[in-house]
Amino acid sequence: MALNAVLGVDIGTSSSKGVLVGLDGTLLRSAVREHSVDRPAPGHVEMDADIWWDELVSLSRELTTGTDAEVVAVGLSGMGPCVLLTDADDVPLRPAVLYGVDTRAVDQIARLGEELGVEEIRRRCGSDLSSQAAGAKIAWVADEEPELFARARRLYMPSSWLVRKLTGAYVLDHHSASQTTPLYDTVARRWYAPWADRIAPGIELPPLRWSGEAAGTVTAEAARSTGLPQGIPVITGTIDAWAEALSVGAHRPGDLMLMYGTTMFLIHTVPGLLTDPALWSTVGALPGTRNLAGGMATSGAVTGWLRELFGNPGYPELLRLAEDSGPGANGLLMLPYFAGERTPLLDPQARGVIAGLTLSHTRGDLYRAALEATAYAVRHNIEALEKAGGDIRRVVAVGGGTQGGLWTRIVSDVTGRPQELRTTTIGAGYGGALLAAQLVTDASIDEWNPVREIVTPRPGTAARYEELYGLYRALYPATADLVHTLAAHQDR
């Protein structure tokens, strides 16, 4: 008798990941497809949507071929908020504009803030306009590519694009919509027509559903392409970080999820609407939930950059060298703003800084400084969350960066916070699989993915980091004017 299973697929910044999961939460198979983004101009970060579908097809074929498991539902997630505009026949008009790592819409953010009112945008939409706001990027396309924009009829993100390809349904989840500022009213939980019609005229905005609701079923054509059974349900899906939070059970008031990935993301679940100009207030992935969130523009992207500069040694070797370096990286201090910074600085012109370099510093020192820099940035975000009214009672870590143990230990030492690690930390694909399983069974994340370890701060190391954190916070204002000038040279 065939084993029933669910397929989870997540489209990330640097790779797509797929998991085949039994209905009891057992990870049966996993696979990865690496890809890269396009950077056609300074501050522009894009990706061809054909990659998303091609990799879903490839992952589905690999994970379901030669197994007795029968897929009964599909879960999807993807990076976001992104802007993929298509014509009326669902032909993409240009590559998708990616989330907050793309900083092109500076002029549109300023103009819309002036026209609509910064305070009114925050009151209605929960967040200020920033590089994370998908609505501002739609305005950029309208301003800079008017002939193309005149043909735009639909708006997609990675998960909703895959839903369309699999089922024919045109839908978007409420959480993703809440990051299209200023198109979505987070208080009323619906599109706000006066601003949507003004910023996205001619675009039929998708009907809204919750992430775990069924969007439709796999069509005969999609079944032929993917090897999935025709007629099985597909969830509406959501943005990857929110699926990651679900994958480790971080969705109750007081929970904070830390996602260790190409970028670092923080999602704090709050009992009611909280807003702050330095953070993002969103509707949650589940009905009735709200979040206060933050995100760095880089984290794993910096460690990956260093690894490439070092000749691509294995990550275990780099972690060993960083462990040998010791707390403080032998006097190195880094600002990890290599692609600008999102929260709480909201400064697309910020740049990376490495202070204290000498001829005696090693690869291990540099790698350790990068890990510590992200930990300082996590603490900065946590302080901003609490200043905004958040009440963090539990921290749960997830993502590829939790492997090896050193990075999570550094973050706990710097923040003074224990971190809960679940048995499975593969992330968003697993969260999507959970939502898919809940369409057909009473799946529970605490049964699927129990706690494996608690990472606790080490008092002696924490004291050392207290001093260094003060220096970290002083370094940005001390260098901001200089790096902004350098950023202007880079944009020429």
Give the helix/strand layout.
Layout: E1 4-11, E2 15-22, E3 27-34, E4 46-47, H1 49-64, E5 70-78, E6 84-86, E7 96-97, H2 106-116, H3 118-125, H4 134-144, H5 146-149, E8 154-156, H6 158-167, E9 172-173, H7 174-177, E10 184-185, E11 190-191, H8 193-199, E12 208-209, E13 214-217, H9 220-226, E14 233-235, E15 238-239, H10 240-247, E16 255-260, E17 264-270, E18 280-283, E19 290-295, H11 300-309, H12 315-325, E20 333-335, E21 353-355, H13 363-387, E22 394-398, H14 406-415, E23 419-422, H15 428-437, H16 445-448, E24 451-455, H17 459-490
Parallel strand pairs: 1-5, 5-15, 9-12, 16-22, 22-23
Antiparallel strand pairs: 1-2, 2-3, 4-7, 6-8, 10-11, 13-14, 16-17, 17-19, 18-19, 20-21, 23-24
Helix pairs in contact: 1-6, 2-4, 10-15, 11-13, 12-13, 13-14, 14-17
Question: In words, what does this structure look like?
Answer:
The protein has two domains: 4-241, ATPase, nucleotide binding domain (Nucleotidyltransferase, domain 5, 2-Layer Sandwich); 251-424 and 458-492, Nucleotidyltransferase, domain 5. Helices cover 38% and strands 21% of the residues. Strands 18-19-17-16-22-23-24 form a seven-stranded mixed β-sheet, with helices on both faces. A hairpin with a 4-residue loop joins β2 and β3. It is globular. The protein starts with a strand and ends with a helix. The model has no long low-confidence stretch (mean pLDDT 96). Belongs to the FGGY kinase family. Residues 257-437 form the Carbohydrate kinase FGGY C-terminal domain. This is FGGY-family carbohydrate kinase.
